[in-house]
Amino acid sequence: MRLAIVTSFPPSKVTLNEYAFHLVKHFRQKRELTELILLTDKTKEEKVLSFNESGCKITIKECWTFNSYLNLITVTKAINKVQPDAILFNLQFMKFGDKKIPAALGLMLPLVCRLKRIPNIVLLHNILEQVDLNNAGFTANKILQKGYEFIGTILTKLILKADLVGLTMQKYVGILEEKYKAKNVVFIPHGTFEISKEPQYTLDNGPLKVMTFGKFGTYKRVEMLIEAIQEVRKSTHKNIEVVIAGTDSPNALGYLKFVKNKYKHVPQINFTGYVDESDVPKIFQESAVVVFPYTSTTGSSGVLHQAGSYGKAVIMPNLGDLALLVKHEGYRGEFFTPDSINSLAKAIESIILDDAYRIHLGMANYRAATAFPMSKITEMYLNKFQEIISNKNTISRLEPQRTSH
Fold this sequence. Notes:
The protein is α/β, with parallel strands linked by helices. It has two domains: 2-191 and 374-404, 3-Layer(aba) Sandwich (Rossmann fold), CATH 3.40.50.2000; 208-370, Rossmann fold (3-Layer(aba) Sandwich), CATH 3.40.50.2000. It is built from 14 helices and 13 strands. The chain has helices at 17-27, 71-82, 100-106, 109-115, 142-159, 170-180, 223-236, 255-262, 280-285, 302-309, 320-329, 341-352, 355-370, 374-404; strands at 2-7, 35-41, 57-64, 86-91, 120-124, 164-167, 185-187, 208-216, 240-248, 269-273, 289-291, 313-317, 334-336. The chain has a seven-stranded parallel beta sheet, sandwiched between helices. α1 (17-27) crosses α14 (374-404), α7 (223-236) packs across α12 and α10 (302-309) crosses α13 (355-370).
């Protein structure tokens, strides 16, 4: 099978590029595939294809640009040119742009594939029904929020024109089945990027590194973490370094620069900036605990799966999708009350003051992460493609009989 994947891809900074890297890494090792065709966004630097494992041929077609009004045309032309056997879309609602029209036009591509009878699956990482539009940086205006919800409903209906929509949380399947009467939605877990041999749970000498990872400024904010660490330092006298790994959210440019200036008097805060894929293991391995300073959630958390794969204890707000992931996938962590600095400080203390508890949480999270490696997730998608192709072949064989009556 020649499988095309429509996605952003490193060194792109567009959302889900890291997920695509690991998806491709494991797809290319599948014997069923003869070629992977990556229909990606355009980047100045060459695409990162640093895979140690051998696998099928990979072809890169840079054919779209974030916020371009022409993406629907340019990606369709690329599809016509490469003529893949099947297409996987690695999507969330702002994949093709943070402006309404480019975002909407890009999300029409599954419908185009359906009309062309190309077997296609959308891997959808979030649904707008579960996004807090205010906290996520879209709008605080109640009237505009209603407008976004209306547009979101239309876009969801477009996405549901795909042969199949894979959702990373079971809860999302139920919502789309109930609201849209969808029959073509299925739960396929997010998966864990890297499954290394079981990690060493002991820490190196030096400061305890309390790390957070992501794109910050909207519903991911680090002020509360910094304030909580200051409290913990006073109460425990521990040598603690705060590691803020990542960049600004596209909806909050300049946020981390503002935070860095605001807390320039606070020692031992490390703003790493963008973390290259090759540096991700080191930054997790050196951490004592991974904190999720979120005020809301927008889907299954890739960072939680990464933390689990490195055997790390985690601290999470007791809300939304993160709480569901802990319940359904077996992750363990300390919870804190959103917006409560004192609650977060106590959660941090409970882990860094009890090494046995920290290790216990890390071991539980490693077990949860190893249950759904990316190799298993890619196998699930290939099985679904085979079902779609088989059904299409059956229908095409029956069509002449229908027209003869």
